[in-house]
Write a structure and sequence with these properties.
Number of domains: 1
Number of helices: 8
Low-confidence stretches: none
Shape: globular
CATH topology: Rossmann fold
Length: 195
């Protein structure tokens, strides 16, 4: 089994209309703090981002937020984090989030969450890393996305083995357990973000 000391969580800057999303963020955040897993996230104080950050902090855990300066007012940069890193661009944000994380989880979110999830999965697909990736499928939020992956396989656009890069579970504890048990099939290559 691998060790996860830091976990990058992608999630919405809104809480959405389903209260189960925030409940899942709280459950995940509490479990991370209880197991001394540092939260790496986008640095916002609002939405699901703020919920999980506050939960980890309130439980005595460590939280590192990474936010571009132009998003400070929009995502309301969290002032009470263990560490808040300001970067110049979204690309730098994603690079730092990747470098500092041992694994990745997507909670419910919008365009930004999906973009981050699919990009880090693409990096895995092309052999740039072997860090585990998961989606927390709260109340079936990611059902259509997972069905799209199956359709891509059916239509010959995605290899069945590549579908396994994304681990999906409905409950935080089950997802973290699956990420911990994920097999490492090869040595990671280092991503050169200057390419």
């Amino acid at each position: 089994m691998r060790e996860i000391r830091s976990l990058c969580v992608y999630c919405g800057s809104s809480t959405g209309t389903n209260p189960h999303y925030a409940e899942a963020a709280i459950e995940l955040g509490q479990m991370m703090a209880d197991n001394d897993i540092e939260l790496i996230y986008g640095g916002g104080a609002v939405g699901l981002m703020g919920v999980i950050a506050d939960t980890v902090l309130d439980a005595g855990g460590r939280v590192t937020g990474i936010i571009p300066a132009h998003l400070f007012p929009r995502e309301v940069a969290h002032a009470g984090l263990t560490d808040l890193l300001e970067v110049a661009t979204m690309h730098e944000r994603k690079e730092e989030m990747f470098r500092r994380s041992d694994a990745f989880i997507a909670l419910p979110g919008g365009f930004g969450t999906m973009e981050e999830l699919t990009e880090v999965t693409t990096w895995s697909q092309i052999g740039l890393h072997v860090k585990p990736i998961g989606v927390l499928n709260v109340d079936g939020y990611y059902d259509l996305f997972l069905a799209w992956l199956d359709r891509a396989i059916e239509d010959g656009l995605l290899k069945p083995s590549n579908r396994d890069f994304i681990i999906d579970r409905e409950k935080p504890v089950d997802l973290v357990d699956a990420l911990l048990a994920a097999k490492i099939n090869s040595e990671p290559k280092w991503i050169n973000f200057d390419m």
